[in-house]
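Subject: sequence -> structure tokens, single chain

Hey, anyone have a minute? Need the predicted structure for the following. Not urgent.
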Amino acid sequence: MKTTSQNEHSWSILHELLQCYITFPQIFSVYKTDQIAVKVVIHEMHEGAKEAHTTDTNKVWHEILTFILENPWTDVISMPKPHMVSTTLILAVSCAPQMYLSDFNANPQFLQKLADGKVKVMASYWPSFLYSQELHKLDNIESGLMKGNLLSQVFKHIFCSTRDPTKQGGTKHCNVARINQMHKITGHHIAYATCQTRYALCAKDSWTKHDGTFDMDTFYVAIVNLFEEYPEDEWAKATLGWWNEEVFSDAEGRVITNTEKQTHPPKSSVAQMAAARAAHVKACAEAAKMLTADLEANLGAEPEYEDYEDEEN
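Reply:
Had a minute. Here:
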């Protein structure tokens, strides 16, 4: 019998776990009466998420100046004005609200106003790094939004990392995305990459939710809401399509392979919830169809008039 090392044994277990699609209902249904076990599971999940978050933060923070360049092989950071002599300025321009960008470029004193707190930088104002300046139009706040080159580079470094930030390549390098079985880009993915970018651009030495008047939680939720509050909005659909094209070379996202397709026993908690939701959606659709048919029938019917005799007769 062939013996295996501890590492080989651990990798085999990890491989098997990656084939499973374990959901929260499945995890917690095992510990319905064991609150201590539930707390342990939650703690481990929290620690794992925190470790992954820290890893992404360090990855982005160390490469942020490279990501700012359109082409890392040929471009260099150049100062737009003689009085602008610090790399910090480049980072400040990226953090500056898009609506103030023209003032930033035109007024040498604007940077000092930002530093003095006379111009508030808050999460409610989209920073310029979210925008593609080539696509942005002054009279259209949505134009170019969420298509900034810096944001795109950071996103790919996190989810499609090749360890070399100059070698991002769409579907050729989607290692992290495949491991996490990402098939479509969502507002949460974009918001996560955006917050990592914002932190890397700020002057903080460690992760913080607050940078002066800028609140990271508010920023994250605002970006998610752009896509989830009105999912049928044309801008939201087009922007998600653009991101899927950027990452997976397909506006519809990555095709789910046979090995990634998951099946669950009919009596499992996952299957039962899915069946209940499907039945509810079907019932609502049928009720709406019947209501529409009744309304159309009533609108198309001839009006009925009661017979009456002339009062004079």
